[in-house]
Structure formats: C-alpha cells, structure tokens
Write a structure and sequence with these properties.
single chain; mainly alpha; 2 domains; elongated
Amino acid sequence: MGFYRTLKMGQHYLNIWPLEPKLGAIFPENRVIKATLFAQKMMPFLAVLFVVWQQIYARGDNMALAVAVLSALFALCLPLQGFYWLGKRAQTPLSPQSAVGFHHVLEKLKEKQEVIPNFSDKPTYLDLANLLKMAQKKLPQDFWQDL
C-alpha cells in the first residue's frame, strides 16, 4: 500500500477507534491518537513560532534561519508520523491474544442478535476497531469491564 493510502487509512482508523480508558491499558492506540490529535493542533503554531522567533532574535544569521526552517518542517511532519503509524497498525493482523478478545466481542454481539459485517479469517486491527465501535453503540457500558 502506498504512503498516501497508508496516511488516509491512519486517519480513518483514528476516527473509528473508540477512546475507552479500558482499551488504553491494553492497546497503545489511545496514546498515539491523543498525541497525533495534539500534534495536529499545535505543531502548525509551533512551526510558525520557530521561524518568527528566528526572525526576531537572529535576523541576519542564515544558519539560524536554516535551523528554524528545518525545525518547522519537522514539527509539521509529526502528525503525519502518527497517521502513518496508525495506518500501518490498522493493516496489521491481530495478535493471538487480541484475536481471542475479538472473537469474544463478536460472540457477545451475536448473542444480542446484531447485524455483523463479515470479517476475514485473519482479522486486522481495523476490523477490531470496527467491532469495538459497534460494541460501544450496541452493548451496555459494563461490557468494557469484562474485556
């Protein structure tokens, strides 16, 4: 999968992953999503601050300008790193432990006789996110304690 498609997949994965506190103890997605959202909001401001700060305090220094521009570019790339990680993670097959949990949640939804989309034999983290999002809507809140 190409770089751009991986970034788009990461954005999609970010939007559907349920940010439940219980999941934060099990999966790193909660931390990565929160850091990516923070970076998406703050890094453009920081990039501008780097260049403006350099213009105020080191006006004639070309080396300082180069460092400020590189720092600004790095700051602007941080959210992309989060989206890329999430995109790669979404495509990764579930670990054996997570696959057991996936099937457990799937069975709980089947007990409630919910309409469930077909998942592949080797579910991915994107499939898990879709299933957990569905469980968040359809199952009671005490479901998260059983996870």
